[in-house]
Design a protein that fits this description.
Structural class: mainly alpha
Mean pLDDT: 88
Shape: elongated
Oligomer: single chain
Number of strands: 3
CATH topology of the largest domain: Zincin-like
Strand order of the largest sheet: 1-3-2
CATH superfamily of the largest domain: Metalloproteases ("zincins"), catalytic domain
CATH architecture of the largest domain: 2-Layer Sandwich
CATH class of the largest domain: Alpha Beta
Distance between the termini: 42 Å
Length: 177
Protein backbone atom coordinates (compact mmCIF):
# COMPACT_ATOMS: atom_id res chain seq x y z
CA UNK A 1 0.00 0.00 0.00
CA UNK A 2 2.79 2.43 0.94
CA UNK A 3 4.65 1.41 -2.21
CA UNK A 4 1.65 2.54 -4.23
CA UNK A 5 1.46 5.84 -2.35
CA UNK A 6 5.20 6.50 -2.52
CA UNK A 7 6.56 4.85 -5.67
CA UNK A 8 9.96 6.47 -5.18
CA UNK A 9 10.56 4.45 -1.97
CA UNK A 10 12.14 1.03 -2.06
CA UNK A 11 10.49 -1.94 -0.40
CA UNK A 12 13.15 -1.90 2.35
CA UNK A 13 12.47 1.79 3.06
CA UNK A 14 8.72 1.15 3.35
CA UNK A 15 9.33 -1.75 5.75
CA UNK A 16 11.69 0.43 7.82
CA UNK A 17 9.08 3.21 8.04
CA UNK A 18 6.36 0.72 8.96
CA UNK A 19 8.58 -0.83 11.68
CA UNK A 20 9.39 2.59 13.15
CA UNK A 21 5.71 3.52 13.28
CA UNK A 22 4.80 0.21 14.89
CA UNK A 23 7.59 0.59 17.46
CA UNK A 24 6.50 4.12 18.35
CA UNK A 25 2.89 2.98 18.76
CA UNK A 26 3.98 0.06 20.94
CA UNK A 27 6.14 2.33 23.13
CA UNK A 28 3.24 4.74 23.54
CA UNK A 29 0.84 1.97 24.60
CA UNK A 30 3.33 0.28 26.95
CA UNK A 31 4.40 3.53 28.60
CA UNK A 32 0.79 4.26 29.51
CA UNK A 33 -0.56 1.68 31.96
CA UNK A 34 -4.14 2.61 31.03
CA UNK A 35 -3.66 1.41 27.44
CA UNK A 36 -3.58 4.84 25.88
CA UNK A 37 -6.46 6.22 27.89
CA UNK A 38 -4.54 8.16 30.53
CA UNK A 39 -6.46 9.86 33.33
CA UNK A 40 -5.70 13.49 34.06
CA UNK A 41 -6.26 13.62 37.80
CA UNK A 42 -5.98 17.39 37.86
CA UNK A 43 -9.37 17.66 36.18
CA UNK A 44 -11.15 14.82 37.95
CA UNK A 45 -14.83 15.58 38.20
CA UNK A 46 -16.48 15.98 41.59
CA UNK A 47 -18.61 12.96 40.61
CA UNK A 48 -15.65 10.60 40.19
CA UNK A 49 -15.55 9.45 43.81
CA UNK A 50 -15.96 5.86 44.92
CA UNK A 51 -16.50 6.98 48.52
CA UNK A 52 -18.79 9.55 50.16
CA UNK A 53 -17.60 13.14 49.95
CA UNK A 54 -17.02 13.37 53.70
CA UNK A 55 -14.90 10.19 53.63
CA UNK A 56 -12.81 11.64 50.80
CA UNK A 57 -12.31 14.92 52.69
CA UNK A 58 -11.30 13.02 55.86
CA UNK A 59 -8.76 11.00 53.88
CA UNK A 60 -7.24 14.20 52.51
CA UNK A 61 -6.95 15.56 56.07
CA UNK A 62 -5.37 12.25 57.14
CA UNK A 63 -2.91 12.61 54.24
CA UNK A 64 -2.08 16.13 55.46
CA UNK A 65 -1.44 14.83 58.99
CA UNK A 66 0.92 12.17 57.64
CA UNK A 67 2.79 14.36 55.15
CA UNK A 68 2.64 17.86 56.60
CA UNK A 69 2.72 16.81 60.25
CA UNK A 70 0.88 17.88 63.36
CA UNK A 71 1.54 20.88 65.61
CA UNK A 72 4.08 20.21 68.36
CA UNK A 73 2.62 18.22 71.22
CA UNK A 74 -0.65 17.45 69.41
CA UNK A 75 -1.94 14.04 68.49
CA UNK A 76 -5.17 15.03 66.75
CA UNK A 77 -5.90 16.87 63.54
CA UNK A 78 -8.52 19.52 62.98
CA UNK A 79 -12.27 19.00 63.06
CA UNK A 80 -13.84 18.83 59.62
CA UNK A 81 -17.16 20.41 58.75
CA UNK A 82 -18.44 19.66 55.26
CA UNK A 83 -21.01 21.99 53.71
CA UNK A 84 -22.49 20.80 50.44
CA UNK A 85 -23.71 24.15 49.16
CA UNK A 86 -21.80 26.82 47.24
CA UNK A 87 -20.56 29.67 49.43
CA UNK A 88 -20.76 33.10 47.83
CA UNK A 89 -17.20 34.13 48.72
CA UNK A 90 -14.99 31.29 49.97
CA UNK A 91 -14.11 27.68 49.20
CA UNK A 92 -13.11 26.84 52.76
CA UNK A 93 -12.32 28.37 56.14
CA UNK A 94 -10.32 27.60 59.25
CA UNK A 95 -11.52 28.64 62.71
CA UNK A 96 -8.67 28.83 65.21
CA UNK A 97 -10.79 28.65 68.38
CA UNK A 98 -12.55 25.42 67.48
CA UNK A 99 -9.69 24.07 65.30
CA UNK A 100 -12.27 23.46 62.56
CA UNK A 101 -11.81 23.36 58.81
CA UNK A 102 -15.02 24.03 56.91
CA UNK A 103 -15.12 22.90 53.28
CA UNK A 104 -17.80 24.25 50.92
CA UNK A 105 -18.06 21.37 48.45
CA UNK A 106 -20.35 23.25 46.07
CA UNK A 107 -17.76 26.01 45.59
CA UNK A 108 -15.37 23.63 43.79
CA UNK A 109 -15.32 22.59 40.13
CA UNK A 110 -13.08 19.51 40.44
CA UNK A 111 -11.35 17.26 42.96
CA UNK A 112 -8.01 19.02 42.57
CA UNK A 113 -9.66 22.20 43.87
CA UNK A 114 -11.14 20.27 46.82
CA UNK A 115 -7.73 18.83 47.70
CA UNK A 116 -6.05 22.22 47.22
CA UNK A 117 -8.54 23.91 49.55
CA UNK A 118 -8.18 21.24 52.25
CA UNK A 119 -4.37 21.46 52.17
CA UNK A 120 -4.61 25.28 52.25
CA UNK A 121 -6.86 25.23 55.31
CA UNK A 122 -4.74 22.52 56.95
CA UNK A 123 -1.71 24.81 56.62
CA UNK A 124 -3.71 27.44 58.54
CA UNK A 125 -4.36 24.77 61.20
CA UNK A 126 -0.59 24.34 61.50
CA UNK A 127 0.23 28.06 61.49
CA UNK A 128 -2.61 29.70 63.45
CA UNK A 129 -2.68 27.85 66.77
CA UNK A 130 -3.23 30.59 69.36
CA UNK A 131 -5.47 33.60 69.81
CA UNK A 132 -2.36 35.75 69.46
CA UNK A 133 -1.57 34.21 66.04
CA UNK A 134 -5.21 34.61 65.03
CA UNK A 135 -5.05 38.30 65.89
CA UNK A 136 -1.76 38.66 63.98
CA UNK A 137 -3.46 37.09 60.94
CA UNK A 138 -6.40 39.52 61.22
CA UNK A 139 -4.08 42.51 61.66
CA UNK A 140 -2.09 41.57 58.57
CA UNK A 141 -5.30 40.99 56.63
CA UNK A 142 -6.50 44.51 57.44
CA UNK A 143 -3.14 46.14 56.73
CA UNK A 144 -2.05 44.48 53.50
CA UNK A 145 -5.01 42.41 52.29
CA UNK A 146 -5.65 38.78 51.55
CA UNK A 147 -3.24 38.27 48.63
CA UNK A 148 -0.20 39.70 50.42
CA UNK A 149 -0.97 38.18 53.84
CA UNK A 150 2.00 35.97 54.82
CA UNK A 151 -0.27 33.28 56.29
CA UNK A 152 -2.23 33.13 53.03
CA UNK A 153 0.91 33.07 50.91
CA UNK A 154 2.28 30.14 52.92
CA UNK A 155 -1.05 28.28 52.69
CA UNK A 156 -1.26 28.83 48.93
CA UNK A 157 2.32 27.65 48.47
CA UNK A 158 1.70 24.47 50.48
CA UNK A 159 -1.55 23.73 48.66
CA UNK A 160 -0.03 24.27 45.22
CA UNK A 161 3.04 22.21 46.13
CA UNK A 162 1.18 19.18 47.48
CA UNK A 163 -2.25 18.98 45.80
CA UNK A 164 -1.18 16.76 42.89
CA UNK A 165 0.72 14.31 45.13
CA UNK A 166 -2.23 14.05 47.49
CA UNK A 167 -4.72 13.56 44.66
CA UNK A 168 -2.46 10.90 43.14
CA UNK A 169 -2.37 9.03 46.44
CA UNK A 170 -6.16 9.26 46.80
CA UNK A 171 -6.41 7.73 43.33
CA UNK A 172 -3.92 4.95 44.12
CA UNK A 173 -5.90 4.12 47.27
CA UNK A 174 -8.93 3.50 45.06
CA UNK A 175 -10.97 6.48 46.21
CA UNK A 176 -11.51 7.73 42.64
CA UNK A 177 -13.29 6.03 39.72
Amino acid sequence: MLLALFPSLSEKEVIAIWCCCAALWLLWVLSDRTGGKSKDLTTSSLHELRVPKVAFAREVIRWCMQHLGLPKGKKAGPRLLLRYYRHRKVMGTYQQRSKTITLYWGSHVDLKEVVNTLIHEYQHFLDIRTTQEDKAYDKELKQIGYQQNSYEKKAREAANRWDKACLQEMSSRGLLK
